[in-house]
Amino acid sequence: MDAQGDVRETHRRRRVDAALWAALCVPVLAAGPLGFSEPLPPGHRIAALAVLAAATVLGRARPVLAFLLVAALALATGSALLTLETGAALTVFALLLGVRAERAGPAPYAFGAVLLLGLGRSAVRGVDPVSEALVLVSALLLVVVFPWLCGRHWRQRRALAEAGWARAAQLEREQRIVADRARLRERARIAQEVHDCLGHELSLIALRAGALQLARDLPERHRRAAAELRSAAADATDRLHAVIGLLREPDEPVPLEPAPTDSIESLVRRAAASGMTVRTEHPGGTGALGALGGTSEPDGTGEPDGADGSGADGASRSPLAEQLARSVVREALTNAAKHAPGAPVTVRTERGADGTTVTVTSGAVPPPPPNSPTAAPAHGSGGPGGSGGFGLPGLRARVTALGGTFTAGRHGTGFRVHARLPGRSPAGHGARTPYRSRLDRLRRVPAVVAVPALGALFFGGALAWYAYAQAHSTLEPAAYAALRPGATLDQLRPVLPDRAAADPPVDRAPPRPAAAGECRYYRADGELFTMVEHFRLCFDRDGVLVAKDVVPRARLAGEGPTG
After folding, report:
1. pTM exceeding 0.70
2. What number of other Cβ atoms are within 10 A of residue 178's Cβ?
3. Which pLDDT does position 417 carry in this prediction?
4. Which of 72, 130, 276, 380 is the most buried (most CB within 10 A)?
5. Which range, of 175-184, 294-303, 347-356, averages the lowest pLDDT?
6. What is the pLDDT averaged over residues 315-331?
7. Exposed/middle/buried for 104, CB within 10 Å: 0-12, 13-18, 19+?
8. CATH superfamily assigned to domain 186-295+313-365+383-422
9. Which of the listed CATH numbers 3.10.180, 2.60.40, 3.40.50, 3.30.1450 matches domain 475-563?
10. Cα-atom radius of gyration of the chain, to the nearest Å?
């Protein structure tokens, strides 16, 4: 956000705070004059407006302090937080405390402090402790804790929504990355297949051209043509490796899906037809292939038994593992044709329930016959580096990514490639997240439901106790009129109520008589939740009634003096 936006946001917050303060000042100024409660003295009203202004200013930066200021004002204004002047402000700042506070930890301590202050105030005033405590606890739960929980819920929902949108954006970015990686891996797969298939075919063409070039009875012009053919095949192989280097991702050599390819027996047959001496070995026996020999296809489909992913043992196999096994044989035969022309090659395959093992071993290169032309290397660039380094390293990465092992290196006077492939591909699926147990869900009963229920229980108890205390502290006007000074307290007990008024209007009562030792207040009417007149009876130290007075109810705006 730019500087201009910051200024606009600051002005907006100030306007909102000013409107909030104005709204909270309405009950303070109007509750007393309208007759909903006893009017506050002018000084108390000004102090209440100042406290609300300070709390509004501090509400954003110090929400806990702002709440404590309003709670202290509510305790100083009326009994047990239940005052019309400050009740709305206390609820609003409790709600804002839940919305604005970063941490929920300080709030319970603030609520405990308010509870202790309220109980201490009740003890100092000497009012009925049971009724005062019930009203205080119920008010604290309903007017303070419940709004605070609503504010916390609001804040968490807003944070959850923001996190959800951020997560959605992150998932979208990750999806794009996954799609890009999938395209790269598919490109790597295509490059691998092009390298394996065309490179193998071009190497066989070069090998056959080289064999034709070495024929003794070949005319010289045909020998030159065979040499040109061999050189062209080698150059095509070099260009193929250059293109593969542009398409290939070395760190993503594993194909996404196995591509259709020739069987191992077909590869061996074609290599033998090109002039290589290839021997195949299986766990059940050994078979030799001559220069023009082939292998049988017992199933009549061109695919030997066990090459379709299910061996003789009937165990199911991974298609990708079988495809990799064929790729290993093809790459090893291609390298033998390029770097060891004329050397005998042994292809050994073992299939079991736990996987497939492929071993291709090439022997030493035989010396050329006497008086025969010397052929150039089958590959135009010559040496092991002619392949560009993509064949064996790529196979090693693909086999190890599948969970197998791969080795390639010198073996005696020749070279050996050994790969062991697992029977099944890694699952690649993470553990399924367990569902929460029913007991765990029951433990997560929302506090926004439990707190109102608990507050309603306390409030019901406080209401019942309030009705009981008011009913047993009411002195009938006729009984009051019959009282005569000089009567003793013991004589008046059958007439007087069981309890005195819990919150007597001491500020409106006339001055106490000089001889009075104790003054008792009784309600003149049993009506609940309204202001009524009170009767005051003063006794001396001997328990003799010395004075009785009527304490009028508070005057409202527009009313004349009471008679």
Report:
1. no
2. 11
3. 93
4. 276
5. 294-303
6. 75
7. middle
8. Histidine kinase-like ATPase, C-terminal domain (3.30.565.10)
9. 3.30.1450
10. 49
